[in-house]
Amino acid sequence: MRQQTYGFFGSAGPVLGAMLLWGTVGPAQALAGTPLGPAALGGWRLVVGGVVLGVLARRDLLALVPAMRQGLIRPLLVCAAATGVYQAAFLCSTARTGAALATTVALGIAPVATGLIGKALSGERLTRTWLISTAAAVTGCALLMAPAGSGVDVLGLGAGVVSGICFGLYTVCAKRLAVDYPGVHLPTVSALALLLGALPLVPWMVTGIHLLGQPVALGLIAWLGLAATALPYWLFSVGITSTSAAAVGTLCLAEPLTASFLGVFVLHEHLTTTAVLGNLHVLGALAAACLPAPRARPTGALLAGPAAPPPRAPQPSTSPVTHPAQEVPQCPHPN
Predict the structure, then answer these.
(1) Which residues lie closer than 8 Å to 120 by C-beta, 6 or more apart?
(2) Would you say 129 and 284 are in contact if contact means Cβ atoms under 8 Å apart?
(3) What is the pLDDT of residues 56-69, one digit of tens each?
(4) Which of 78, 158, 282, 288 is the most buried (most CB within 10 A)?
(5) How do the residues of the chain divide into helix, strand and coil, expressed in percent and rounded to 5?
């Protein structure tokens, strides 16, 4: 199969684009200031994004029926459960610790969780590039957490860890879907996963339904559903087919990086020196994760140097009789 490339960032480009769009969720919520609760907001976001993706991929819905009979339903339900739990856990962490710290914890855990889950479930090899980029990213997230100070809510941090693990589980299962069911349209699967993941949040959605008449709430839901859910999930589904799960886990750190930049330039927040260093670490980790993996060469080729030309085929003798003593072995000439 020929691997599609996407400019400088290679096959990781669509995944990186999805992470950048996902990074606008927190700043958009802070900028809008809607009274709609986080759980209800997250549920409507999943519903709008799932419906839009379903409409765009409606021609491929029937193709899922035979795949469902072949076992697709199980990984689909895992993706849906991971989506719903991630949304609830992340919103809980945000409510208890704040958007900045919740995003940092969740997406700081995600690279490690994705790499380890991918190795356990799919046998993916953890490359040296992944180890370096993940170490730099986790260090950057630790620096970003430093200004938060003491007195952090333990339950909120635990919910952030759970959301990071759920992100890793979704990434690995989506990657497995792309490998095990190559004929399935992944955006269609994502649409179903989003709609199923919104089911646990329906009680909060119903409770706050009277707030949907506010233009601010509708505008925020439109942005989150279209630009921060439907489009990035489409990009994520396209890019994950040719990007390892471990690399996706590292690229997810573009989300808190984007949120941090938007906080400075849009919300006029102040970054300390430690936070700036943390962002630089995360940026370096993203650059390392986007580099294409070097092609492996045989071990012998590293020592033997340039390959010698193939030996020439022996020419037939023009003499009718050839004595064994006159035969000369044909050896390749050294370069």
Answers:
(1) none
(2) no
(3) 888 777 778 888 88
(4) 282
(5) 75, 0, 25
